[in-house]
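Translate sequence into structure tokens.
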Amino acid sequence: MAGSDLKILVGLALAFAVGCLLNVLAAVIKLDADRDPNAVVLTVIIFYFLAPWPNIMCKRCGGDGMDFDGSGNVWRDMGFFLTGFLIVSGLALPLALQQADEIGLAAMVMSIAGGVVIYGSVAAYSHVFSNKSEF
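Result follows.
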């Protein structure tokens, strides 16, 4: 591993840790005067850990046998769709919890910001360290 790869890896690990910290702080710090902390916000982290797995699994399953129109890879498209579904669910859950008056506005903003940082670091890692010879 070259020195620049190590710097990128450390930077992405730091970004991932900051995203996790934002989500945990959104759940445990009393941000609003009229609300107690609510740990249900931590369920968002599950979506961001599950989000890259459809792409990982469907990239490995791709083949020529299930192309409907002959031009694309159905497995890869299904992986993109499921990943997008999990990302949107992870972003929409804090919004829905805030609208249901379970969490405050500050906790919602911290949770969404943490989720964006978490998935951004995972996506950057998979982009930077992907093996270009596989494609």
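Note: Residues 72 and 124 are 24 Å apart (CA to CA).
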